[in-house]
Sequence to fold (142 residues):
Amino acid sequence: MRIMGLDVGEKRIGIAISDPMGWTAQGHSVLQRSVLEADVKNIGKLCRDYEVEKIVVGLPLNMDGSIGPKAREVEEFARSLETDLAIEIAYWDERLTTRSAERILIEADLSRRRRRQVIDKMAAVHILQGYLDYQDSASKRV
Fold:
């Protein structure tokens, strides 16, 4: 079962997709935001192409864990995906994922311009891998 991870921003959506076994997350692409219908259609096409059965959406909670305006916007977007694509949605706390991804890219000595091109995709990888790791550890506890 493949799972897709999304880092939903105002201008771009970072996309990661798991391997068929659901163990590892790989960066896929960055979608430039358009109108809601077009964004949902593009993500739907990827879901069909890669046989994605679940989407994990990064939820940008406030640092105190509360849900703010950005998180509500992301939830609204995710509800559109769930309704229009008839796909299961899960949320993952994405606090600091972009910072973590940026730190890795800086350590890899990528230029600022190149970092800007891939940061959203890397954040999506962090979101999805965190979710996959949690699912794996939860299954081992049972």
The domain at 2-141 is CATH 3.30.420.140 (Nucleotidyltransferase; domain 5). Residues 50 and 84 are 17 Å apart (CA to CA).
